[in-house]
Specification:
Layout lengths: L1 H14 L9 H21 L11 H23 L1 H4 L1 H4 L9 H26 L11 H25 L3 H15 L11 H7 L3 H15 L7 H25 L3 H4 L1
Helix pairs in contact: 1-6, 2-3, 3-6, 3-7, 3-8, 3-10, 6-7, 7-10, 7-11
Amino acid sequence: MRRLIWKLAKNDFKKRFAGSYMGVLWALVQPLVTVGMYYIVFDKLMSGASRTNEAPFVLFLTAGLVPWFFFSEALNSGTGALREYDYLVKKIVFKVDILPIIKVTSALFIHAFFLLILLVVAAIYGYYPSLPMLQLPYYSACLYILVLGICYLTSAIAVFFKDISQIIQILLQIGMWATPILWDMKSVSFHWVGYLKLNPLYYIVEGYRDAVYRGTWFVENIWGTLYFWGITLVLFLLGRAVFGRLKIHFADVL
């Protein structure tokens, strides 16, 4: 089953860029342009209004955007997995449970590339490979499991309610500003900090920064770690339960 998932994920990744002249480069251009534009606007045009004191702003920004790009890409593609592969869903012998996994794994390929970009940016600013950076695979795995659980839920709902994709787009726009990607948590009013930390992506984004330039280990944030895995487990079990309950109807609706 693992080999099948891996093969289908690679095929899915290649299929998205088949026929275009630049191919997979298109998957890399847009995020790079996004990072560049945010850097120019917030750090240059606004005279460093959003700059953080603990690291160069471009490194702070990249460490936040890299996990966000993976989350948003995986959630968007994973939500439409069953509709995109409806011909497989209708096959009685095919295990439809792996379709969200295929989509999330496909998004992981681009994420791996951007992790390398993040390490290059860190090295440019003097943060060379170190032991805390070994936590990056851990935080990537955290993000993978979180978004996979959500995709089980959203992909199942999308079969019966197409508008869920549009709702997710709106929630992603809100979520990006509710997550400390472009702004530093230290600049937020004390009264809001507790609420913002309820967002599981806060743990991920701050974890990437801890690993890359703060040199902090996740075990030092034991309560944050326990909360993240608690909420992730709830979302994953909920997603699997809804998916399992509805999947007998997928072929009939599609």
